[in-house]
């Protein structure tokens, strides 16, 4: 299968798809941190969504896709879509963030561009956010602890032509109790002190168990014995 993993610099899903023998490419405006320049397209993903395109991976190799993609797995930025950021839309922050409404509308439009791509199999991943009301509710919510990673991070999956993910290894998530009495997931606390850009990148990475489940349940292993 020819698979486009949109908005993925970590290459977590791409690596798992490649491990099973598929021709998968990650695409992001940032360089990849997954270590495989030969699989990473560093550009705006929009011109690639409908397939029938040419592109260059970060190792300098030219590639062509002469058909539609067989599958698109997308992780569009959630900064302006997630419910966690709703407070920044309050009137008292208007002067501090004057373009927030426009940025949200652009994010919604980007999400819908991906959904409307000419591809039979599409999965879009995003945290709880406004797309449930602006578009529709996700087909399912998943948690990392359902796939072997002891973390809690509720994430929605909007699916077309793909089955819901089945849990593979349910474990107990690690929750840290703060001095204030608040209880937070470990990953949230461990990334709290990172600079904003690094924190955003770290929090957007797909957990290994979920990436593995996506590859195995949506694409399957085509390698020869």
Q: What can you tell me about this protein's structure?
A:
With 225 residues, the protein is an alpha/beta fold. It has six helices and eleven strands. The strands form three sheets. It has a seven-stranded mixed β-sheet, sandwiched between helices. α1 packs across α6 (208-218). The longest helix is centred in the middle third of the chain and has 16 residues, at 100-115. The model has no long low-confidence stretch (mean pLDDT 89).
Please provide a brief summary of the model.
The chain has about 220 residues and is an alpha/beta fold.
The helix/strand class is alpha/beta
Major sheet: size, sense and barrel closure?
7 strands, mixed
What string, H for helix and E for strand, traces the elements in order?
Answer: EHEEEEEHEHEEEEHHH
Which of globular, elongated, flat, extended, rod-shaped describes the shape?
Answer: globular
Mean pLDDT across every amino acid position: 89
The percent of residues in helical segments reads 10-25%
Poorly predicted regions are none
In the sheet with the most strands, the strands line up as: 3-2-1-6-7-9-8
**Radius of gyration, Cα only, in angstroms?**
18 Å
| Annotation field: number of helices | 6
Give the termini distance in whole angstroms.
Answer: 18 Å
Q: How many strands appear in the DSSP assignment?
A: 11
Relative strand content: 15-25%
Keywords:
single chain, 225 residues, alpha/beta, 7-stranded mixed beta sheet, two-stranded antiparallel sheet, globular
How does the SSE layout of this entry go?
Elements: E1 2-6, H1 12-19, E2 23-28, E3 40-42, E4 53-56, E5 62-65, E6 71-74, H2 100-115, E7 122-127, H3 131-134, E8 140-142, E9 155-160, E10 175-177, E11 183-185, H4 186-190, H5 196-204, H6 208-218
Parallel strand pairs: 1-2, 1-6, 2-3, 6-7
Antiparallel strand pairs: 4-5, 7-9, 8-9, 10-11
